[in-house]
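Notebook, bench 3.
Goal today: get a predicted structure for Glycosyl hydrolase from Streptomyces thinghirensis so we can plan the truncation constructs. The sequence was checked against the plasmid map this morning, with no discrepancies at the termini. Length recorded as 409 residues. Pasting the sequence as submitted so the record is complete.
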Amino acid sequence: MAVRQSRTRSRWSARAAAVVAAAALLAAIPQVAVGEPVPPAPAPPAPAPAVPDRKPGAAPAFGAYLDYGPRGVARMAQLSHWLGGAELRVGHTYLPGDLWSNIEGAPGFLDVWADWRTREADRMFVLNVPMMERNEEGVDDDEVRELLRQGAAGRFDHHFRALAERLVELNVPDTVLVLGWEMNGTTYTHRCGPDPEAWKTYWNRIVTTMRSVPGQKFRFDFTPSRGRDAIPWTRCYPGDATVDIIGMDSYDQPRGMAFDEQVKEPYGLQAHVDFAKAHGKPISYPEWGLFRNGDNAEYMRRMLAWMDEHKPMYNTLTDYCPHGVWQCDDNPRSTAVYRSVLFGRTDEPDTTAPEPVTPTAPTAPPVPAVPPTAPRPSADCSPLELGDWVEYWLGGKLCMRLDWYSRNK
């Protein structure tokens, strides 16, 4: 669990909020009230899709969280350029958890990610999916407990069926779904602590519902935060039948904790690897990065080495301040380590042993010039605000000359 003020999933721009608020009214469906019959349980889930084999000796697939929408997609090419053409195979974003209509995948939000995913066969799209609306609004434990029990009884099935149908329609049926992430903490309404048994039943119901949609090949990633947090994350594990990947969000925290302690602590990095091995599941790190210990080059070096050793299916760095390196100028030593380790990395097997990186004086390759994403407007040209979606497809902003009226008189 990292900075929540800057890492809030449920806040879009004002433009997007206005659109989806109207959509929410149309998406509303009568809910199950006390005393009404609950929806029948979905049919047993289809077998989980097989996890594709990694090339022998290949480096783990990686990427970074760079922004929610089109800017996040555009920045992936720039980050790859900064890393000397390194192959960023993983795109990662989050569904807003404010309204059910957004959790269903509001029109226009997922399209740009689906377009990125389908351009290359070996790319991976990772999508964090809230299990509840009002997911970051401080809902108290009593209400969370009641909501979990309603979810376990089937009240919210139709929202997740709609999301599954939307992803299949967009031709991304193999999306990795990080469902109910960091459930062992206290931040989210979809937390496990108030009723672990109801939470597990609800998770199983969501997975079963989404796997019942024709054409799906989803993989479900169970991802707690590192350590015990509010409840041991093992108490929330819903079972091997509905989990395909066992992930962990692992930031450099709490203050003063060395990396060796992060490995050895109860429910820490080693416990995560051991638990996944015991259950025959691959691991992942959907969120990781710097945090309480500042520009900690030792953490960066050790975390990258840990992932190279344990070969997660994928990892995505949270790349903005205080966690990141490319979009954050506050962490120059860690930035140098990250860039030196990943510079030019591809999915091909590495036959040479990597040179150790000294965290106090890392040497990074020369920084290539990053081409601007769009030409700068002239001084007498006023940029037009057309929104992320339009600007992504246009390749930049449009502007209007301020002297148009006088030149046409």
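The chain has a mean pLDDT of 82. The domain at 38-342 is CATH 3.20.20.80 (TIM Barrel).
Flagging this for group meeting.
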